[in-house]
Design brief:
Number of strands: 7
CATH topology: Alpha-D-Glucose-1,6-Bisphosphate, Chain A, domain 4
Number of helices: 2
CATH class: Alpha Beta
Largest sheet: 7 strands, antiparallel
Helix content: 25-40%
Distance between the termini: 40 Å
Strand content: 35-45%
Order of helices and strands: EHEEEEEEH
Protein name: MxaD family protein
Organism: Mycolicibacterium psychrotolerans
Strand order of the largest sheet: 1-7-6-5-4-3-2
Radius of gyration: 16 Å
InterPro entries: Polyketide_cyclase/dehydratase, START-like_dom_sf
CATH architecture: 2-Layer Sandwich
């Protein structure tokens, strides 16, 4: 498995950051490059494991399904619709920055993980695919920062 992480420090408080991430069906409302996003199912359970969204980015479409959800802390989802033999997931970790609860800000880490069943070049393919998918991570983090600054202003 290959993993790539990107971290960004935001001025917004963790609750504002979490509010955007937890609104799973509104990715297009704040993420640059996302043309359309909609929920594919409804999950009553809390945490909402299994909740899925369809994400349209230009001509590319993926389906993301929540696999881990710890309120105000972690959101992880599997990404389907990429080349065969690739298993890809993203995990957002949201942490308060600093000791003070007053205007302390937030540290957000987005980790992309890739596994492949392709052999014998599996590990090389994982690293290449993870780098390609993780390129989008910086754009997502920048978009999150911009959106939370709008919300907290």
């Amino acid at each position: 498995m290959a993993e790539f992480s990107r971290t960004r420090t935001l001025t917004a408080e963790p609750a504002a950051v979490w509010a955007l991430l937890a609104d799973f069906g509104d990715l297009a409302g704040w993420a640059a490059g996302v043309d359309h996003c909609c929920l594919l199912n409804h999950v009553e359970a809390r945490p909402p494991l299994g909740l899925s969204r369809r994400v349209q980015m230009g001509r590319d479409t993926v389906v993301e399904t929540i696999t881990d959800y710890r309120p105000a802390r972690t959101l992880a989802y599997a990404i389907a619709g990429l080349p065969p033999r690739l298993s890809v997931s993203n995990r957002w970790d949201v942490l308060p920055r600093g000791e003070s609860r007053i205007n302390s800000g937030t540290t957000v880490t987005l980790t992309t993980s890739v596994r492949t069943t392709a052999r014998p070049l599996g590990r090389l393919l994982e690293r290449i695919a993870a780098r390609l998918v993780a390129r989008r991570s910086q754009t997502l983090l920048d978009s999150l920062a911009k959106a939370t600054e709008r919300v907290s202003s």
